[in-house]
Amino acid sequence: MNRTLLIIKPDAVKRNLIGVILKHIIDAGFKVIAMKMLWPDKDMGAQFYEIHKGKPFYDWLVDFISSGPIVTCCVSHTGGAQKLREVVGATDPKKAAPGTIRNLYGTSTGENVVHASAPDENPEREIHFFFSDEELFEY
Ligand code: UDP
Ligand code: MG
C-alpha cells in the first residue's frame, strides 16, 4: 500500500461535503490511516503551499485554505498518489473527467473541494506536514 495526502478544503467543509467525499474515496478502494480537522492560519497555509509562491493565484490560495476548517487525511492504496489524483480529477472542475470528485462537486479552478498530493511533489512531505509517525496507523 502507498500513502498520500487528501485535504477536504474549506469550500467543501462549509457545504457539508465531508461525508460524500470520504465515501467516494473509500468506495475507490482507499483506506484512511490518519484524519484531522483543523483551521489553518495564514502562516500555515503559506507554508503548505510554498511550492506555488510567486504564482498569480498564490495569495488567493493562502487566503482560501485559511478561510475555514479543513479535513486532512492520509489515505493508502496500491496505486498511491497517482490513483488519488485520478479519483480527484483535473484542477479545473470543468476539465475534470466525469464522475471525479472535482467534476461532481467543484465550483471553480480555485474552489475545487479537495487537495491531493502530486506524485512528483513528495506526498510524504505533505503527509508529515500534518501528521507525526505515531498518528499514521498501520492496521
Ligand atoms: N489554483 C487556482 N488557480 C489556478 C491554479 C490553481 O486557484 O490557476 C488553486 C486550486 O485551488 C488548486 C491549487 O491552487 O487546487 C493548487 O494548484 P495546483 O496547480 O497544484 O493544482 P492541483 O495540484 O490542486 O490540481
Ligand atoms: Mg498541486
Give a brief outline of the structure.
The chain has 139 residues and is of the alpha+beta class.
Overall description:
The model has no long low-confidence stretch (mean pLDDT 98). The protein is built from seven helices and four strands. It has a four-stranded antiparallel sheet, sandwiched between helices. It is 37% helix and 19% strand. It has one domain (2-135): Alpha-Beta Plaits (2-Layer Sandwich). It is an alpha+beta fold and 139 residues long. The longest helix is centred in the first third of the chain and has 10 residues, at 18-27. The radius of gyration is 14 Å and the shape is globular. The N and C termini lie close together (11 Å). Helix 3 packs across helix 4 (58-65). Bound molecules: uridine-5'-diphosphate and magnesium ion. Uridine-5'-diphosphate is lined by residues 57, 60-61, 91, 109-110, 112, 115, 118.
SSE inventory with pairings:
Layout: E1 2-8, H1 10-14, H2 18-27, E2 31-38, H3 42-48, H4 58-65, E3 70-77, H5 80-88, H6 101-105, E4 114-116, H7 123-130
Antiparallel strand pairs: 1-3, 1-4, 2-3
Bound molecules: uridine-5'-diphosphate and magnesium ion.
Uridine-5'-diphosphate is lined by residues 57, 60-61, 91, 109-110, 112, 115, 118.
List keywords for this structure.
139 residues, Alpha-Beta Plaits, 4-stranded antiparallel beta sheet, 37% helix, binds uridine-5'-diphosphate, binds magnesium ion
Describe the strand arrangement of the main beta sheet, using strand numbers.
2-3-1-4
Q: How many helices in DSSP terms?
A: 7
CATH topology: Alpha-Beta Plaits
Mind telling me the CATH class?
Alpha Beta
Biggest pleated sheet = 4 strands, antiparallel
Low-pLDDT residue intervals, each spanning 5 or more residues: none
Instruction: Name the CATH superfamily classification.
Output: Nucleoside diphosphate kinase-like domain
How many strands in all? 4
What structural class should be given to the helix and strand makeup? Answer: alpha+beta
H/E topology pattern: EHHEHHEHHEH
* Radius of gyration, taken over Cα atoms and rounded to an integer in Å: 14 Å
